[in-house]
Design goal:
84 residues, 42% helix, elongated
């Protein structure tokens, strides 16, 4: 940006180092995330520019579906196997 560009079209100045610490603590307090999580969040924002909700089922989540082989090994309801 040169001096001929009107002020309203210039990007805002970067916060100073102490201000960045205050902003980081504010994000920790408001979001409920830890300092480490906040650092990762800020880094992700700086590289991509967008933050999106990443909560939810992971892509490689363990499948809890019962397989047919597992059903045969379970005891029937009402039957005690420890009684001889």
């Amino acid at each position: 940006m040169d001096r001929r560009t009107p002020k309203r079209f210039r990007p805002p100045p970067s916060p100073s180092r102490p201000d960045k610490g205050v902003l980081r603590l504010y994000v920790v307090k408001v979001s409920g995330l830890s300092r480490q999580q906040t650092t990762r969040l800020i880094a992700r924002f700086r590289t991509g520019g967008r933050l999106e909700d990443r909560l939810g089922k992971p892509l490689n989540a363990y499948s809890w579906a019962v397989r047919t082989g597992d059903v045969a090994s379970e005891p029937e309801p009402g039957v005690r196997r420890d009684v001889v």
